[in-house]
Design a protein that fits this description.
Elements (H helix, E strand, L loop, with lengths): L1 H45 L6 H13 L1 H17 L7 H23 L3 E2 L2 E2 L1 H4 L2 H20 L7 H26 L9 H11 L1 H13 L4 H27 L2 H10 L4 H7 L2 H11 L6 H13 L2 H19 L7 H15 L2
Antiparallel strand pairs: 1-2
Helix pairs in contact: 1-3, 1-4, 1-16, 2-6, 3-4, 3-9, 4-6, 7-8, 7-9, 9-10, 10-15, 12-14, 12-15, 15-16
């Protein structure tokens, strides 16, 4: 018994150490691949002459608050291009308007979700009022659209049209997924399968980034299909990873119960008739306490909510690895997957 416990402690220590190592490698990768885009985004936002001091402060705060997030999209495009041996010189030009538009959408999402904090920091909506957040979101969307059409001077018309049509499809699919998620607010009788369909739709933007990278790299149709499928898997893992983390954060879990959509592990736990009525009573309470959040977590653990979520994520990892097994330049793609493999081990 003691020996078994000792082995378990050593295993957990190794997993945590490996997680820190992977996070360090990913941070370096994001800095390296996204630095040029980050500088362009800052320049584009700060060059605007805005007299309203409140909007000025909100934009500057957004730059500081989301700086790490600005590195993700250009990095994913770059990885998609590199996987097929493509040139990455165009990436900063293409990624900059995408980062601006996505930033505007993210601010609007925070308002919809009533999300005033993220990763222990206030969102723009949380730090400023709703009206300011809406205006900043609108400004980023418009600036992104204008920057996008300026690309006509920098890339071929054919590539511009290809990527524009791709983005149109991705944004509408993403928007559809988000709208369906909004419709689940306050609902507890939702099948995990239905929720996963929504998660799949919401992963459309990550799929599109890898698809864009493949197009920049002049990939074949089979390579584009493989990288797109890989991107969809990574996007879903991203969302489901947040679901797992949110279950262990009492404040975030309380927010999602009151203002958002329940996390996947909880939907799985609700399938068990032994605890469904008890969970239902807690979830429908006017005020959810931290004690309630702890009870929900314990019941979800006990009745296989995390076990089933882990199985879904493991299948996505296997699918992602299968789609990229024929690429020669896939080390960084594998690193993203390995990060989730290690995360899953801790569930």
């Amino acid at each position: 018994m003691i020996a078994e416990k000792s082995r378990q402690i050593k295993k957990e220590s190794f997993i945590q150490s490996r997680q820190m190592e992977l996070h360090s490698k990913l941070q370096e990768l994001f800095k390296k691949e996204g630095k040029a885009t980050l500088e362009k985004v800052k320049k584009v936002i700060l060059e605007e002459k805005i007299e309203c001091k409140e909007i000025q402060r909100a934009l500057k705060y957004f730059l500081s608050y989301r700086e790490k997030g600005f590195l993700v999209r250009p990095t994913l495009i770059s990885l998609g291009s590199k996987a097929v041996g493509g040139d990455i010189e165009e990436i900063a030009e293409i990624a900059t308007p995408l980062v601006l538009m996505s930033g505007g959408m993210d601010i609007h999402d925070d308002i919809i979700d009533n999300q005033k904090k993220q990763n222990s920091r206030f969102t723009v909506f949380g730090k400023f009022d709703k009206d300011v957040a809406l205006l900043v979101g609108d400004a980023l969307l418009f600036k992104g659209l204008i920057s996008w059409y300026k690309l006509l001077d920098k890339i071929s018309m054919q590539k511009f049209i290809q990527i524009t049509l791709l983005l149109e499809k991705a944004f509408f699919e993403l928007g559809d997924g988000q709208a369906q998620e909004v419709s689940l607010k306050g609902k507890i009788n939702v099948s995990p399968e239905h929720y996963l369909q929504i998660v799949r739709k919401k992963a459309a933007d990550i799929e599109a980034l890898f698809h864009i990278g493949a197009l920049i790299g002049n990939a074949s149709q089979s390579e584009i299909k493989a990288l797109s499928n890989y991107g969809r898997c990574i996007g879903m893992l991203w969302i489901l990873g947040d679901d797992v983390v949110d279950m262990f954060n009492p404040n975030e879990l309380k927010r999602r119960i009151k203002h958002g959509c329940l996390p996947l592990p909880l939907f799985y736990a609700m399938e068990n008739p032994k605890i469904k009525s008890r969970l239902r009573r807690i979830l429908l309470k006017t005020r959810i306490t931290k004690k309630d959040a702890k009870t929900i977590l314990e019941m979800t653990i006990k009745f296989a909510g995390f076990k089933k979520t882990k199985s879904v994520m493991q299948n996505l990892v296997l699918e992602a690895l299968e789609t990229i097994k024929h690429f020669k330049n896939a080390e960084d793609l594998k690193l993203l997957v390995e990060d989730y493999q290690n995360f899953i081990e801790q569930i």
